[in-house]
Amino acid sequence: MKLARIDHVAVSVKDVEKARDFYSRILELPEIPRPNFGFSGVWYKLDKVMVHVIQKDTNANPNRANLSAQDPHLAFCIEDLEELDKFIQKIESENIPWYELENAPSGLRQVFFKDPDGHMIEIVTPNPKNPYYESVFLKYYV
C-alpha cells in the first residue's frame, strides 16, 4: 500500500461557532458543505486537503501562550515570506500569541500559534535566507 496524500485533518473543538469564526476569518479557509453526522461541525477544503472541525469535549490546553513546536499541530503552507509577514501582523492584531522557530532545520520559516481550543497551528514558508534552505528544503521538500 502506498499513501498518496493527506485527505483531511479532524480537529475537536468545544465551540463550533467560535472555531468557525477562527478558521474562516483568521485562516481564511473556504468552507464546504458538510453531511449531517448527528453532531455539530464544519468542513473546509484547501486544495486537495480537508479540515474537519467537530464538536466534542476535549482536554486540549487552551492556554495560547504555551507554544511548542513539539505539540501536535495542523500545518498550512504560505508560499512567500511577504505573505507570511502579513499573516503575522494579522494574528498580532487579534492578540494571538505566536512563536517562530528561528533558523528552523527544515529550511522553512515556521510560525506556531493556537486556535481558541488550544490546538497548535503551524504556518510554513520556504525561506531562502535560512542556513538550511539548500541542504534540507531544496533536497527534501521540492
Notable characteristics:
142 residues; 4-stranded mixed sheet; globular
Would you give an account of this structure?
The chain has helices spanning 16-26, 81-93, 133-141; strands at 8-13, 31-32, 41-46, 49-55, 73-77, 98-101, 108-114, 120-126. With 142 residues, the protein is of the alpha/beta class. The longest helix is centred in the middle third of the chain and has 13 residues, at 81-93. The two termini are 23 Å apart.
Counting DSSP E segments of at least 2 residues, the number of strands comes to 8
- Residues in β-strands, percent: 25-35%
Radius of gyration: 16 Å
Average per-residue pLDDT, rounded, comes to 84
Strand order of the largest sheet: 1-4-3-2
- Helix content bin: 10-25%
Order of helices and strands: EHEEEEHEEEH
Assign an overall shape: globular
Distance between the termini: 23 Å
Query: Helix/strand/pairing class, anyone?
Result: alpha/beta
Helix count? Answer: 3
Residue runs with pLDDT of under 50 for 5 or more positions:
none
Largest beta-sheet details: 4 strands, mixed
Short recap of the structure:
By secondary structure, this protein is α/β, with parallel strands linked by helices.
Topology:
Elements: E1 8-13, H1 16-26, E2 31-32, E3 41-46, E4 49-55, E5 73-77, H2 81-93, E6 98-101, E7 108-114, E8 120-126, H3 133-141
Parallel strand pairs: 1-4, 5-8
Antiparallel strand pairs: 2-3, 3-4, 6-7, 7-8
